[in-house]
Amino acid sequence: MELTGAQIVIRCLEEQGVDTVFGYPGGTILNVYDALYQTPAIRHILTAHEQGAAHAADGYARATGRVGVCLATSGPGATNLVTGIATAYMDSVPLVAITCNVNLPLLGKDTFQEVDIVGITMPITKHGYIVKDVSILAKAIRRAFAIARSGRPGPVIVDITKDVTAARCEYEPEAPVYEEPAERYSDADIEKAAAMITASRKPFIYAGGGAVLSGAAEEVRELVRLIDAPVCETLMAQGIVDQHDPHYTGMIGMHGTKTTNFGVSQCDLLITLGARFSDRVTGNAFRFASGAKILQIDIDAAEINKNVKADFAVVGDLKRVLSRINRQLAPQEHREWMAQLEEYNRKFPLNYDHSRFTCPQIMETLDRMTEGKAIITTDVGQHQMWAAQFYRYSEPRTFLSSGGLGTMGYGLGAAIGAKLGQPDRIVVNIGGDGCFRMNLNELATASRYNIPIIQIVINNQVLGMVRQWQTLFYGQRYSQTVLEDKVDFVRTAEGLGCRAFRVTNAEELEEALTAALRQEGPVVLDCRIDRDDKVFPMVSPGASIDTAFDASDIEN
């Protein structure tokens, strides 16, 4: 059948099973929006800003495991997607961004609202297409989806000139292609990895975000049971193991638990599963797990030996690789090693001042009142770390956060996308007041569509994590980190169509959360905490992770 380019775009989205897209219209993409108007099978969410659309598509993808889709017009519409695309790239999120550009004869002439968005996003995408011929449009979109979800996932951009969206071409539907990752390992590699695990007397399992992306939760949990080993998670891997399991020792790295950081520093084998040895994990990379052999399993060969040298590596899809390794392993016991870590847990528990109203208390209350079953999105800063430390995750894809790029303003858009992708789950965004200011306009999106998300603002009237660094490392010189002003988040939220509560103590929190969990639309909780609350433990930048300090160390 003969269709316009715009109609082909929509038909290709339908082919890929897309049911929801996020975006904002404009001149060059009007033909696509006109075709979308005539396609009720695809729900379009009009966000307040294109960055919000990208974050919503990202949150949808992380919560569902499917490819997220966002749309934008040329020029500033396209460039407003850039931060969201970079966020998805750093965290390996499958995303397809479709933009439209000026007519082909006008390209390269500084035409109104013309930018080379494919060139701009080249360093932060897996691939980019600029489509100048309607005959290749369907192929480009199909390849974009295949690339976005294959191997190590990531964002792909498809930029289409406006005249291509108006041109006509024959269209033949095709089933979506799901490319199997190439297996770059041998039977001997599996056997050697299993032998290293079997020979270890103090193994430690370090799970990263790749374990979530590969869907390897059951395989990771089986490995933990088989070899009776402690397991930690990165920020991106929250929920890959049930955090109620006694083998779980907490998060690793700068704000990880002392049990985990000491354990990793003392193990004889670090089993690294879909993790890239981020600087926030390793601290001083030369001293990281220096007494251990390192076994690294990752789908991306570029991550092997990039930050920390591995003694042995297997390049492949973690779910497949680990399934094969597990079949090679006999059950083991490591009683003395586990007892040592249990002693660390008793000696160095995560703690906070229970006499005051704090974010850890908020997270523990939220955990109790949602029975640990909510999807938690976060912005970036102290609240992000507290959300990882004090809410206990039992499933993957229930903690959505900007880990690699550290994007303030990510969480609210991501919460909208997550709720639309998982409508039966409670979705809560935890954001500091600094982050909330950046994208609070997306409350208008939530209220427009009556999306029942809960936005908890951890309001200490400062940029909390930056202030913490200024306190500890900059002689308490609080340059531009105090946010005291006349902004009232409760009245602002109400003005944007949401129900809102101001919360100053534990009793008010219980009442507000009870109401919020019953509400059928968006709710905002403005939670006031002390500006000098700090996230502990903490490893100084560039220090070894076994030198983590806490509040008592500062006082002394």
Short structural summary:
It is built from 24 helices and 20 strands. The protein is α/β, with parallel strands linked by helices. It folds into 3 domains: 2-170, Thiamin diphosphate (ThDP)-binding fold, Pyr/PP domains (Rossmann fold), CATH 3.40.50; 187-347, TPP-binding domain (Rossmann fold), CATH 3.40.50.1220; 359-540, 3-Layer(aba) Sandwich (Rossmann fold), CATH 3.40.50.970.
What is the CATH class designation of the largest domain?
Answer: Alpha Beta
Alpha plus pi helix count: 24
CATH superfamily placement of the largest domain: Thiamin diphosphate (ThDP)-binding fold, Pyr/PP domains
Q: Per the principal axes of the C-alpha atoms, what is the gross shape?
A: globular
Number of domains: 3
Give the CA-CA distance, first to last residue. 77 Å
The SS-based structural class is: alpha/beta
Give the averaged pLDDT, no decimals: 97
The CATH architecture assignment of the largest domain turns out to be 3-Layer(aba) Sandwich
The amount of helix comes to: 25-40%
Task: Indicate the low-confidence ranges by residue numbers.
Answer: none
The number of distinct β-strands equals: 20
Radius of gyration using CA atoms only: 24 Å
